[in-house]
Amino acid sequence: MSKKNFEHRIKKSFLNLKKEFHGLQIELSRTQKKLNRLLAGKICLDISKMSGFSHRPSKIFFTCGVGRSKEKLESFEQALRDAGIARFNLVRVSSILPPNCQFTQKTQALNELKPGQIVFCVMADISTDEPNRLIASSIGLAVPGQRDHYGYISEHHTHGMTEKKAGDYAEDLAATMLASTLGIQFDPDKAYDERKEQYKMSGKIVRTRSVTKTALGDKNGLWTTVVAAAVFVP
């Protein structure tokens, strides 16, 4: 075999090995992506199982609380304790009430949840260290007439608003979002009380409700926090 042929065969073998190596790299990359997707799915499934939410939640309850401390974070923790939900790993979610989700009493619901459990909720919170400043956190709920349709939950936090005004505002937000989804015609410039009657008369929105917590900033300048939450139960 001539030197030229030998070099040609060596070069050809090298190119073939290079192609095979490149093919293996592509296959390895595809396999890695598949493993990543499987792992991500398993993690989501594990979290769902841990939290009891392998399916959509069947119940919901309202709660609220206030806390005060020299540290802002601790005042938030105290507010959660006052609301009865500090012992859970809370995950905030967006504002959809699942179809056929039933409203339940707080005491009964808390007995069904375990310390450390991952619990999903829609939460509103606000803090202040200004003495005597009024703060409010509110959650509103709008329930559709057709129970197999989803409803809306709204969160609202503000300064200087009374408990009733904050609650009405949160209810208005939830009802308006649901009304627009259901195609109910309404005049946004009308007062909420008027639109509320219009919503109910349509038969498409059967109930609205809210939970609100207000507080005045601590007179000595401690951090004051108020929370309101709609908490989901499996």
Structure write-up:
- This protein is of the alpha+beta class and 234 residues long.
- The protein has 2 domains: 1-51; 55-233, Pyruvoyl-Dependent Histidine Decarboxylase, subunit B (Pyruvoyl-Dependent Histidine Decarboxylase, Chain B), CATH 3.50.20.10.
- It is 42% helix and 31% strand.
- The chain is built from 5 helices and 9 strands; from the N terminus they run αβαβββαβββααββ.
- The protein is elongated.
Mind sketching the topology for me?
Layout (H helix, E strand, L loop, with lengths): L2 H49 L7 E11 L2 H12 L5 E4 L3 E2 L4 E2 L2 H7 L5 E11 L5 E11 L6 E9 L3 H20 L9 H11 L2 E12 L6 E11 L1
Parallel strand pairs: 1-4, 2-5
Antiparallel strand pairs: 1-9, 3-7, 5-9, 6-7, 6-8
What is this structure, in a nutshell?
Helix content is 42%, strand content 31%. By secondary structure, it is an alpha+beta fold.
Question: Any key phrases for this structure?
Answer:
single chain; alpha+beta; 234 residues; Pyruvoyl-Dependent Histidine Decarboxylase, Chain B; 4-stranded antiparallel beta sheet; 5 helices; 42% helix; 2 domains; 5-stranded mixed beta sheet
Oligomer: single chain
Radius of gyration of CA atoms, rounded to a whole number: 28 Å
Shape: elongated
Strand neighbour order, sheet with most strands: 2-5-9-1-4
- How many domains make up the 3D coordinates? 2
Determine the N-to-C terminus distance. Answer: 78 Å
- The CATH homologous superfamily of the largest domain: Pyruvoyl-Dependent Histidine Decarboxylase, subunit B
Q: Judging by the overall fold, what is the CATH architecture of the largest domain?
A: 3-Layer(bba) Sandwich
Major sheet characteristics:
5 strands, mixed
The level of helicity is 40-55%
CATH topology call of the largest domain: Pyruvoyl-Dependent Histidine Decarboxylase, Chain B
